[in-house]
User: Which sequence fits this backbone?
């Protein structure tokens, strides 16, 4: 009988916190509503169950479970409930303090008559920085599928990651569920989505596994879309990640990032762009390496058979300097637009300087660069290894002031790098290494078609450009530069 | 007391199936042996020699299979 009576009352739920001036302002209103026998009210308090004072039956929601389930954004929030078959459900809600609105919502004419007409509410504690992932983990739908690894209390968390073989040799950020949730929030992709199969073990690689490794690499969530794109590029057939991993040669993925995202996430395309010290450059490159290691199972001495490797196998990622709009970026060369954010992966290694402090004409500088480019892989090997020519801003200026654009440079390099086969065949110049003897009477170019890429990065002082040599299995038989829109 | 720390496994969570090794062969007489040429320079000469020894040991047939990646076919052709 009592039950039946109660269900006929209008039901309300109110969510408040003591640390909100609007909630404290309406304390007498809350007490009056609670005392009103014509309605039923449940009061949930986010921070202090002794608030409101002198009121029994306040529900402690300091765990924020109710607030999270009801998706409370502002306190106070007053919700009118309707009775369903099994449970009550929300009919409508109001938030903040608006006297007229509260009066009509509760059908109590004199409610809060003594108070100001309007006072906006405060943010719910569920909206505190970092809380959304904490609460999603605690009360939300289970989206993390990866195996949980419980560490014993006595275990050193950093050492535990090393002990399990997850590190490239440097410390990793321990991938706690909370950090992984935050990383996943850096993208709108579904955690369970499979991006492709990661070599060498050829296993499905999920967004979640990418996120776990991005956490370990030290990435911020805002870098995550770039990391995902790097994986999507690496897993394309044309990049040949499997072959690149298992080669005895030095090469490994080199990443060039173009477009607005480089500024948005603070990548370095200026002083020391290929060096240390920038978190985005450092960790995005590292994340892909950790994914190949941990998801793909590619570890040095296992499937990775590099005889020496190169330091870029920790990380090799930089942004292009796009400050000179008359000079086409790598992304534009690959068919994208300036407004696109794009990551390009190149199978390469190391950095060979091209010092030229004397050339003041494009002609001289192009010849100078071409001569240095002959050293890629071996001065007598032609068409085997691609390369990236990294033009420094001062050298770019020399070309611009001489009236050359990037295409003029590319054409001049091509012409300079044509060479009679007789000069570079095996045995020529008393060196056994070289091109097959059958090419003796042909004109050869140092680079295959589409085998020489030109990018710009670096500080504004120093007439030092550079060469990133490519894998000796460049081209369709091995790896080709692969660009992916972010 | 501090609760335990939970980490998420960054690996593919593969488990290698444990398999018993097959018993060693007493002889290769009458067996077919596959040889994989991975296109390294002079790989063919090497495998030809291996094939010769296998056939002397009684293998009925040794089969060559060429794998395209990762070496330049120009270089391989040049060895012929």
Assistant:
């Amino acid at each position: 009988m009592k039950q039946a009576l109660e269900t006929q009352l209008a039901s309300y739920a109110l969510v408040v916190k003591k640390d909100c001036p609007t909630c404290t302002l309406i304390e007498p209103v809350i007490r009056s509503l609670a005392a009103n026998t014509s309605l039923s009210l449940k009061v949930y308090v986010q921070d202090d169950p002794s608030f409101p004072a002198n009121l029994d039956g306040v529900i402690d929601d300091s765990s924020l479970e109710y607030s999270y389930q009801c998706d409370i954004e502002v306190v106070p929030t007053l919700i009118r409930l309707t009775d369903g078959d099994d449970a009550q459900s929300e009919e409508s809600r109001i938030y903040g303090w608006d006297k007229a609105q509260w009066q009509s919502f509760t059908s109590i004419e004199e409610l809060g008559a003594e108070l100001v007409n309007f006072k906006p509410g405060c943010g719910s504690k569920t909206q505190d920085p970092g809380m959304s992932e904490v609460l999603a983990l605690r009360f939300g739908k289970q989206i993390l599928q990866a195996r949980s690894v419980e560490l014993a209390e006595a275990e050193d968390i950093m050492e535990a990651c090393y002990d399990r073989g997850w590190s490239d040799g440097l410390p990793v950020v321990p991938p706690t569920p909370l950090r992984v949730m935050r990383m996943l929030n850096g993208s709108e992709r579904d955690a369970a989505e499979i991006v492709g199969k990661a070599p060498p073990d050829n296993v499905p690689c999920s967004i979640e596994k990418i996120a776990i490794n991005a956490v370990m690499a030290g990435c911020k969530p805002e870098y995550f879309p770039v990391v995902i794109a790097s994986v999507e590029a690496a897993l394309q057939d044309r990049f040949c990640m499997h072959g690149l991993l298992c080669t005895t040669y030095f090469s490994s993925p080199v990443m060039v990032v173009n477009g607005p995202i480089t500024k948005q996430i603070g990548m370095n395309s200026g002083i020391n762009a290929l060096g240390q010290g920038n978190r985005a450059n450092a960790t995005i490159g590292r994340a892909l390496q950790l994914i190949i290691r941990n998801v793909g199972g590619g570890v040095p001495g296992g499937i990775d058979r590099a005889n020496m490797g190169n330091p870029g196998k920790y990380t090799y990622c930089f942004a292009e300097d796009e400050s000179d709009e008359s000079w086409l970026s790598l992304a534009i060369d690959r068919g994208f637009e300036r407004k696109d954010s794009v990551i390009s992966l190149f199978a390469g290694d190391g950095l060979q300087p091209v010092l030229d402090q004397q050339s003041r004409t494009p002609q001289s500088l192009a010849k100078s660069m071409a001569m240095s480019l002959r050293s890629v892989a071996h001065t007598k090997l032609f068409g085997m290894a691609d390369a990236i020519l990294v033009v420094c801003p001062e050298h770019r200026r020399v070309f611009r002031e001489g009236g050359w654009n990037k295409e003029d440079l590319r054409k001049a390099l091509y012409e300079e790098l044509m060479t009679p086969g007789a000069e570079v065949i095996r045995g020529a110049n008393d060196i056994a290494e070289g091109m097959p003897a059958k090419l003796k009477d042909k004109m050869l170019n140092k680079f295959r078609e589409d085998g020489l890429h030109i990018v710009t990065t670096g500080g504004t002082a120093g007439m030092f450009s550079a060469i990133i040599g490519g894998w000796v299995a460049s081209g369709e038989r091995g790896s080709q530069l692969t660009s992916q829109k972010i | 007391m501090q609760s335990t720390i939970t980490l998420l496994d960054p690996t593919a969570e593969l488990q290698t199936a444990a398999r018993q090794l097959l018993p060693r062969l007493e002889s290769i007489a009458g067996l077919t042996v596959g040889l994989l040429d991975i296109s390294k320079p002079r790989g063919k000469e090497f495998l030809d020699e291996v094939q010769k020894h296998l056939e002397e040991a009684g293998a009925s047939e040794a089969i060559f299979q060429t794998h395209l990646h990762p070496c330049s076919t120009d270089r391989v052709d040049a060895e012929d």
Q: What stands out?
A: Residues 1 and 11 of chain B are 30 Å apart (CA to CA).
